From TrEMBL:
Main location: membrane
Lineage: Bacteria, Bacillati, Actinomycetota, Actinomycetes, Glycomycetales
One Pfam family cited in the UniProt record for this chain: TauE
Localization: Cell membrane
Topology term for the membrane: Multi-pass membrane protein
Organism in which the protein naturally occurs: Glycomyces luteolus
Record protein name field: Probable membrane transporter protein
Highest rank taxon of the organism: Bacteria
Record keywords: Cell membrane, Membrane, Transmembrane, Transmembrane helix, Transport
Recorded family membership: Belongs to the 4-toluene sulfonate uptake permease (TSUP) (TC 2.A.102) family.
């Protein structure tokens, strides 16, 4: 660990936390920065999963008011989210380094595409839903798939869960977001415990990223939201596409 590595992670944490507060996609900043400072891809993924977990918890606590009246629904989602998170973490723990390095460009590309189509998906879901909740099974299947993905590769987890939860409930965006934050908190708890015990992680990097993402999230909530979301989203998508191409070339 040197000053340059710490500075890079500090900046990435501030930017990632700020982006998460505005448009999401913060892990598309923090994850590649971990690799840029010398952390191997698989280790960087586990490290990033632990580093963002406290921010997930803070978001869940901050949105607890919007969980009022949804306590039973949230409780029923706990087993679904926990089982899915355990399965995703086990999958990552049993993925060879060489295999992960091969698939990571496509994971980054998938997260980038989700960033690009996120607003369209949300509009389509709202239109198709017509303000009515679908069958409860839709909610649980969607949350299971989202938490499975999120515990394996964190980027764009919030976007996935927002879309699938909006399909399964008939609530305002704020209340959907509260359920999303509750589920991401559960993912963060599981991945922190499992990766902290069984995975190789860069604890020094976690020590830098955790406070940086917290500060970035606060700044994002206070200042960055004055910036239009669309230009930010476009910038993240362009960055993600370039990053996917670079990682793909490196893996060949």
């Amino acid at each position: 660990m040197n000053l340059l590595q710490v500075s890079a992670l500090l900046i990435a944490g501030l930017l990632g936390g700020g982006l998460n507060a505005v448009a999401g996609g913060g892990s598309l900043i923090t994850y590649p920065t971990l690799m840029a400072v010398g952390v191997p891809p698989l280790l960087a993924n586990a490290t990033n999963g632990i580093a963002v977990a406290p921010a997930y918890t803070a978001a869940a606590v901050g949105s607890r008011e919007n969980l009022r009246g949804q306590k039973r629904r949230a409780l029923t989602l706990i087993p679904t989210a926990l089982v899915a998170s355990v399965c995703g973490a086990l999958l990552l723990l049993n993925t060879p380094h060489s295999v992960f390095e091969t698939i990571v460009p496509f994971l980054v590309l998938a997260a980038t595409v989700l960033m690009a189509i996120g607003p369209w998906v949300n509009r389509r879901v709202t239109k198709l839903n017509g303000g009515r909740a679908l069958h409860p099974a839709v909610l649980h299947i969607g949350v299971f798939a989202g938490c499975l993905y999120g515990s394996y590769f964190n980027a764009a987890l919030g976007l996935i869960l927002m879309a699938v939860i909006a399909m399964g409930v008939s609530e305002t965006l704020g209340r959907v977001g509260a359920l999303k934050n509750f589920c991401t908190m559960l993912v963060g708890v599981v991945t922190s415990v499992m990766y902290g015990i069984w995975a190789d992680v860069a604890w020094w990097a976690i020590g830098v990223l955790v406070p940086a993402t917290f500060i970035g999230g606060y700044i994002g909530a206070r200042i960055f939201q004055r910036i239009p979301e669309r230009p930010l989203r476009i910038a993240i998508v362009v960055y993600g596409l370039v990053l996917s191409a670079v990682l793909l070339v490196r893996s060949l």
